[in-house]
Amino acid sequence: MSEKRLVPVIGSLADFESKLAGYLHANTPLALLLDYDGTLVAIADNPANTFFTASMKKLLDQLAVHPKVFLAIISGRGLRDVQSCLGIKGITYAGNHGLEIESGDGTRHDYELPAELQKHYTNIVRELTENLENNGAWVEDKKVSLTFHYRDVPTDTAEQYKGAAKAIIESHGFRANQAHMAIEAKPPVNWNKGEAALLILKNQFGDDWAKKIKVIFAGDDNTDEDAMRLLRDSGTSFRVSTDPNIQTYADFRLARQRVVEDLLTWISNTYNQ
What we know:
The protein contains nine helices and 13 strands. It has about 270 residues and is of the alpha/beta class. The chain has two domains: about 10-110 and about 190-270, Rossmann fold (3-Layer(aba) Sandwich), CATH 3.40.50.1000; about 115-185. It has a nine-stranded mixed sheet, with helices on both faces. A four-stranded antiparallel sheet has the order 7-8-10-9, with helices on one face. Helix 2 runs parallel beside helix 9 and helix 4 (about 115-130) runs antiparallel to helix 5. The longest helix is centred in the middle third of the chain and has 18 residues, at about 115-130. Its cofactor is a divalent metal cation.
């Protein structure tokens, strides 16, 4: 199995044109799979405060209706939340790290948690809310996964909140993953953004999808690494990070979130020649 490593960095539209010259072709269909927070929009103190730049929204709207481009959003947010944030109809959305998937025609694929896991999840929400939802910390309940946000707690207590949240989550058998000043609780099931990406591609293009299309994935978080790993030999992926020393399964690092707009511009320029 491949390992994480340092990868080349892309910091501008010119970098895409030079380092990936010839990768895309206007006659070859493209599957464009994108994370939301930290990728399409900058990370905000509260998920409700994210917003698109006008130019980013215009690019997404154009690519969403292009006959050669298949657009899917794979987010840690709940499905309805990310749908309402993006506001683009007719595309595929995956919420809760792929536990909820809805295609453009309304077809659903939901990973149903066993009753016992659902009980554990309910207890996690209750304990986090009762014990740690204070001093600016709060629980984002997404019904099958959650995010414990501690960005706004006093700096000198942040590690304490982080450790306590992880202990509660793991005591119920759920996985506690580090995010941006947050801990994500995910059920202990063999399903993630990578598995969701493969299912989406198979449903849209068939079992032999890798022979028919080009694939691009972009994300900024540790949970996106599952998709980068599983797409390593059949697509090109980009990790959004300002950290020059970050180890990743992606093929390239995007130097900052704004470079995602350059990525979409490069794609748009290729398919609208």
